[in-house]
Amino acid sequence: MIASIAGRISRKAEDFIVLEQGGIGFQIEMPPGLIACLPPAGQEVTIHTHLHVRENEMALYGFSNEEQKKLFILVQSVSGVGPKLALQVVGTLSPDAFALAILQSDVDRLTQVRGIGKKGAARMILELTDKLKKSGIQIPQATELVGSLSVTPAAGMAGEAVAALMVLGYSNAEALEAVKLAGSREEDCLEDLLRRALSRMAIV
Q1: By residue range, what is the domain housing residue 125?
Q2: Cβ pair 61, 52 in contact under 8 A
Q3: 94 and 179 fall within a common domain
Q4: CA-CA distance, 97 to 75, in Å (whole number)?
Q5: Rounded to 10 degrees, what is the CA torsion of 118, 122, 124, 128?
């Protein structure tokens, strides 16, 4: 695994750079926004990297810091998400903003990323709410979930419930309101919370 490369930028393109080190030029794919923030060609820089290997493909992806690299790796754990889409996420949202969007079940924020629709955003929320805590990404502490769902130990389950309701076809606002009205109890499992939230939907 190539964790990072320190060298001289010999070329800056729109979506990749060539970094020279020890007589070797490494082509590193990066989001355009990160490339724009790099020093001009000819300057020395350290790029945090992730080597992606497939059966017939090998590519080196680069980031400004470890947090961005962790986000890139985390996003690819979602079913159907590959490195190209993961790179779009890193180029559009900071690790903090992405973590906040997952915790808040903020579909609108996630769909700002090109290539992510509402169903894809709901799937990300559902699959990453628990994984986020183990990813090493800095999670915002003092925040509130949209719809006044506070970030408490039960917030992760609330986020999963919201995502599950959205997968069933309810809007973000409808799902948030139903989960809020259902309330969270210390003894709850996800199925209990979903059952109450669905019953609230029926009442409304």
Answers
A1: 67-203
A2: yes
A3: yes
A4: 13
A5: 160
